[in-house]
């Protein structure tokens, strides 16, 4: 059994409120700017997920990324995509954590760019594969790939531009 401090097992009130706000922020950035692409929509929620993964605690990021994104799918009429979204957003955040937040080089610019690029490529490939399975058509799924790649690029650039502005407000974890 892994031993954990009581503080590591439970959310503090402050962390709970922050997590709820960040979940709402991921939801809003995903739900509101619906930009139609084949089989779905592009949005700005991934920029929020990237920023959370670069600046906040792991469990806050995972909860906000997964729950906020899934809620956007459920309430936006994309119920079929809820499970793939849950998995894809979790892995996206994990990629950023593992590459950009290594202990030896916490948030080096090259690591951050590599993490955002790999996370975006994962997202595009995973949604394309999920679309091929859900719609039983690789051709239809491939039609969404350019939009997904553009979404990843735009969200990565937004995260890179906002990161220096937001860093002073978030302690490194």
TrEMBL record:
<keyword id="KW-0472">Membrane</keyword>
<keyword id="KW-1133">Transmembrane helix</keyword>
<feature type="transmembrane region" description="Helical">
    <location>
        <begin position="16"/>
        <end position="35"/>
    </location>
</feature>
<dbReference type="Pfam" id="PF07155">
    <property type="entry name" value="ECF-ribofla_trS"/>
</dbReference>
<keyword id="KW-0812">Transmembrane</keyword>
<feature type="transmembrane region" description="Helical">
    <location>
        <begin position="78"/>
        <end position="100"/>
    </location>
</feature>
<dbReference type="InterPro" id="IPR009825">
    <property type="entry name" value="ECF_substrate-spec-like"/>
</dbReference>
<feature type="transmembrane region" description="Helical">
    <location>
        <begin position="112"/>
        <end position="135"/>
    </location>
</feature>
<feature type="transmembrane region" description="Helical">
    <location>
        <begin position="147"/>
        <end position="166"/>
    </location>
</feature>
<protein>
    <recommendedName>
        <fullName>Rod shape-determining protein MreD</fullName>
    </recommendedName>
</protein>
């Amino acid at each position: 059994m892994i031993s954990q401090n009581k503080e590591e097992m439970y959310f503090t009130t402050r962390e709970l409120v922050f997590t709820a706000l960040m979940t709402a922020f991921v939801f809003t950035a995903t739900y509101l700017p619906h930009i139609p692409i084949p089989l779905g929509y592009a949005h700005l929620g991934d920029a929020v997920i990237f920023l959370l993964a670069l600046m906040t605690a792991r469990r806050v990021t995972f909860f906000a990324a997964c729950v906020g994104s899934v809620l956007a799918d459920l309430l936006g009429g994309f119920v079929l995509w809820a499970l793939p979204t849950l998995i894809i957003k979790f892995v996206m955040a994990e990629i950023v954590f593992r590459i950009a937040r290594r202990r030896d080089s916490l948030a080096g610019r090259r690591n951050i760019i590599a993490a955002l690029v790999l996370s975006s490529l994962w997202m595009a490939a995973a949604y394309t594969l999920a679309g091929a399975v859900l719609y039983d058509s690789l051709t239809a799924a491939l039609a969404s790939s350019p939009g997904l790649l553009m979404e990843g690029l735009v969200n990565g650039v937004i995260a890179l531009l906002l990161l220096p502005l937001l860093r002073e407000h978030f302690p490194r974890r």
